[in-house]
Design goal:
This protein has 740 residues and is an alpha/beta fold. It is 57% helix and 7% strand. It contains 30 helices and 14 strands. The strands form five sheets. A six-stranded mixed sheet has the order 4-3-5-12-13-14. It has a two-stranded antiparallel ribbon with strand order 1-2. Helix 6 packs across helix 14 (295-310) and helix 9 (139-152) packs antiparallel against helix 16.
């Protein structure tokens, strides 16, 4: 306690005392600072150094491309192996039913979901940098893939003998074609991600801000839920894609709701309730349970056994998974002819998939104290999708629910993911046929219960309402655009709107007039802090934005509005004054011939509200102290006419200080605008100076040829206080008591 008290006393007695001359940029650049002499390397030499190969550089490249080499040799078996085994089995048990279920979303047979749960997970073990995310099938990506598959291979293309496609469809040919489309799409997604990773585009995910992603994934949950209603009810409807697909899907379901299969509905509801109960138990007792209760695999095994025993497919018309071939299919080259039609969709899937994966990876990395490489994650995902596509998989990313299970059950490294993939391989090779009687309504129940986490993101709305209205707008636009227009168009609209909000922030910054805190060199908003006092004759303007072509005019308008000085209006007032002064001077001369009594024409100026004129008769004072442009002068009747006095008194402000501390960059339009402001205010005898420019900003101003007459570096000051002291003393007026 004594130590704390001593520390507080020491902090209270610390003084900040600096005595130095008032600096401007002209002095700083010529006398105070001297740039280090650097000899730039020739371009050829830089290229040669970049391409030069050494053992250390080769080792760094190999270790960066294969992160497994950095941690596997030092893998602590005793500490990590048991946790990774438990985590791998738990994640693999969860991955099996999800792989089967999400294949339905991707519009391909369920077995391809198992393939997608093996190959990419195996590859990520070698190339990924995150120790805790679970790579594999994911609802949002699967739904986007399914939309493309349905668009490129609709039921109408496979009508048998020209009959109505809704009645007779060659399902085998349709599914085969959809698999070809999906595999080609996955190949293209992998290529895009891999190339973006090589080009160091790992920062790409930052343009998908968190509210945008959360609104988008919530909308995807709506799409997924609506698409699963028909499986839950056992009705047969077409699959819709594109704008208003949610509305069309709901309309189709309600039109066919009379044909609901009651047994299918009962099975689906029972499974849904059971899974929800198990998920709730896992969340409530996650600290007491050694591993989460595997509700999904329990449901799959039990429902498969009941369906097989009761022959539900034949006796009750319950739709089942159907044929699941045993073993792995041989590799096959994708159909490259469909690439042109798939590129926009592939790019969207690549970006969304990477954004989801990197956000989860960074979350776990921050929690457990390690780092992930965004560029290497792009490369890893690209390789997972590209290489796996030759083995009949569809695009994958990280799954939130499985990643949480993998981390919470004791997973320490990518070994857990490797073991999960081997468990899936065992099922595919040995016992895949066991799941053939599995009702599809069970898979629909699994999907819908797993979406609860996404629907909980609705709680973001009241939270964002309290914290950030702009981010709330991004969330809502992302959600509604994705729900109504489809995930592809919705994502484009959401990203466009997010970029517009950035422009809006620069278009509508906070503008303020600053005042000094007495006996300090600190300046704050005079409207917010009662201690902040403006100095007479000086206005200090701050706008919390950079200055460029889109907001330069708004900056000038805000400057004039805040300071109350509009040079154009003042010049008009000057002309008006001159006109009336000449007329009144003529009248006074005429009166002087007739009467010794004079009338003084007094022009009253209100800079804030405008200019008014009032003629007040009275006797002329012999001596009057007035402020002319912030300077105290004496009005002598003998040496100065009233006309001259009134024409000088346009505004009591003699200097405006522009605080450039918040300005990060300025373009040529902004530089020209500031220069024109300096010239414009000079016409009414108001000096404009700049303060707080960073060295980078000053370098940009020099590049833009900003410093030429009448603008010189002497108008630039390192701090607001330097500018205020200079302007006060250069005008030779009484200094404000608070400026020392």
């Amino acid at each position: 306690m004594e130590h704390v008290t001593a520390s507080e006393e020491l902090s209270a007695t610390l003084m900040y005392h600096v005595e130095r001359p008032v600096f401007n940029e002209g002095y700083i650049d010529s006398e105070l600072l001297h740039r280090k002499k650097r000899t730039p390397k020739p371009f050829q030499r830089r290229i040669a150094e970049h391409l030069r190969c050494s053992s250390e550089k080769a080792k760094s490249v190999v270790f960066g491309f294969l992160p497994i080499l950095t941690w596997l040799p030092s893998y602590p078996l005793k500490q990590y192996l048991f946790g990774d085994i438990v985590s791998g089995i738990s994640t693999g048990v969860m991955q099996l039913p999800q792989g089967l279920a999400y294949a339905m979303l991707a519009a391909v047979p369920p077995v391809f979901g198992l393939y997608s749960s093996f190959y990419p997970v195996l590859l990520y073990t070698f190339f990924g940098t995150s120790k805790h995310i679970s790579i594999g099938t994911f609802a949002v990506i699967s739904l986007m893939i399914g939309g493309v598959a349905v668009r490129e291979a609709p039921d109408s293309m496979f009508a048998v003998n020209g009959t109505n496609a809704s009645q007779v469809v060659d399902f085998e040919a349709r599914d085969a074609r959809r698999v070809e489309v999906v595999v080609a799409l996955t190949t293209l997604v992998g290529i895009i991600q891999f190339v973006l990773g090589l080009l160091r585009f790992g920062f790409l995910a930052i343009y998908l801000t968190e509210p945008l992603v959360r609104g988008f994934t919530t909308a995807a949950a709506v799409h997924v839920s609506v698409s699963q209603i028909k499986y839950l009810l056992g009705v047969h409807t077409a699959r819709f894609n594109g704008p208003l697909s949610v509305v069309y899907s709901l309309d189709a379901v309600f039109r066919n709701i009379a044909s609901t299969n009651v047994v299918t509905l009962i099975i689906g509801l029972v499974c849904t309730v059971f899974l929800y109960f198990i998920k709730d138990l896992n969340e409530r007792f996650k600290k007491k349970l050694p591993i989460p209760i595997p509700g999904e695999i329990i449901v799959v095994i039990v429902s498969t056994g009941i369906s097989y025993g009761m022959v539900m497919s034949e006796n009750y018309g319950v739709e089942v998974v159907g044929n699941i071939p045993t073993g792995l299919l041989p590799p096959k080259i994708p159909d490259f002819s469909v690439f042109p039609n798939l590129f926009p969709d592939a790019f969207a899937i690549a970006v969304v998939g990477f954004s989801i994966a990197i956000s989860l990876a960074k979350t776990f990395a921050l929690k457990h104290g390690y780092s992930v490489d965004g560029n290497q994650e792009l490369i890893a995902l690209g390789l997972c999708n590209f290489v796996s596509s030759f083995f009949h998989t569809f695009a994958v990313t990280a799954s939130m629910s499985r990643s949480l299970v993998q981390e919470s059950t004791g997973g320490h490294t990518e070994i857990a993911g490797l073991l999960a993939s081997l468990l899936v391989l065992l099922v595919v090779v040995a016992i895949g046929f066991v799941f053939q009687p599995l009702p599809t309504t069970v898979l629909a129940a699994i999907i819908m219960v797993n979406l609860l986490g996404m629907f909980r993101q609705m709680k973001d709305i009241p939270a964002l309402w309290r914290t950030s209205k702009i981010e709330l707008a991004i969330w809502l636009v992302s959600f509604f655009a994705s729900v109504l227009l489809g995930l592809d168009y919705g994502l484009v609209v959401a990203m466009g709107f997010a970029i517009l909000t950035v422009i809006y922030r620069t278009q509508c910054p906070k503008n303020a007039l600053l005042g000094q805190i007495p006996d300090t060199g600190l300046y704050f908003d005079v409207d917010e802090y009662e201690e902040a006092e403006e100095c007479s004759g000086i206005k200090i303007f701050q706008s919390n934005t950079s200055i460029y072509f889109a907001n330069s005019d708004l900056y000038v308008s805000a400057l004039k509005a805040k300071t109350g000085i509009d040079p154009a209006q003042l010049l008009v007032a000057r002309k008006s004054q001159l006109k009336y002064a000449k007329r009144d001077n003529g009248e006074r001369k005429a009166v002087n011939h007739c009467s010794p009594v004079k009338k003084n024409a007094v022009v009253l100026l209100d800079v804030e509200l405008g200019v008014t004129r009032e003629v007040v008769p009275g006797v002329k004072k012999q001596k009057d102290h007035v402020y002319t442009n912030g300077q105290m002068t004496e009005n002598h009747a003998e040496s100065e006419s009233e006309d001259d006095f009134f024409l000088q008194r346009l505004t009591p402000i003699h200097t405006i200080v522009l605080d450039f501390t918040p300005v990060n960059f300025i373009d040529s339009v902004g530089a020209k605008t500031i220069k024109s402001v300096i010239k414009e205010f000079a016409t009414v005898d108001v000096k404009v100076v700049l303060a707080g420019c960073s060295r980078t900003l000053l370098s940009d101003l020099r590049t833009l040829k900003f410093f030429c007459e009448p603008v010189t570096p002497d108008l630039i000051f390192p701090t607001i206080h330097d500018a205020v002291l200079h302007c006060k003393h250069s005008r030779d007026v009484p200094v404000c008591p608070d400026v020392q």
